[in-house]
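Reminder to self: tokens first, then the designed residues, so the page reads top to bottom the way the pipeline ran.
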């Protein structure tokens, strides 16, 4: 009587190859869709930050009766401005914890009076230059 070989637990080479092929197929379908989302996510983050800054500016205006000047900038939301006009009812602790930078590491531009409304707030996008189209277009509050 021949001895039967005991089968050891584990995966065969064929089973491992099938799993590798399936993972490869999934990667080819999913990776291209995910890779293009990084820039869109940064643009969305900039838009959300602009809305948060705008809300802080509105609170500043409610407390003091005016928006910070262009010279005071959005820094006036973090530290009390010493330039005229000085806010009389500036909140202790400020309106923001720190001066935000956009997702590309650039400062937001703030103008009062703005060209497109009472105040203009914008990120210059990835190219850091005002204007642009497509992914290089500015993100604004107007």
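Designed residues (142 positions):
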């Amino acid at each position: 009587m021949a001895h039967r070989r005991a089968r050891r637990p584990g995966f065969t080479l064929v089973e491992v190859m099938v799993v590798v092929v399936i993972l490869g197929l999934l990667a080819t379908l999913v990776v291209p869709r995910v890779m293009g989302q990084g820039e869109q996510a940064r643009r969305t983050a900039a838009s959300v930050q602009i809305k948060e800054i705008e809300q802080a500016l509105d609170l500043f205006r409610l407390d003091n009766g005016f928006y910070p000047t262009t010279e005071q900038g959005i820094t006036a939301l973090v530290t009390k401005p010493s330039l005229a006009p000085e806010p009389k009812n500036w909140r202790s602790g400020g309106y923001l914890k720190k001066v935000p930078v956009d997702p590309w590491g650039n400062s937001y531009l703030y103008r009062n009076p703005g060209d497109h409304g009472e105040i203009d707030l914008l990120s210059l996008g990835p190219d850091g230059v005002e204007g642009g189209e497509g992914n290089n277009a500015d993100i604004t509050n107007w």
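The mean pLDDT is 86.
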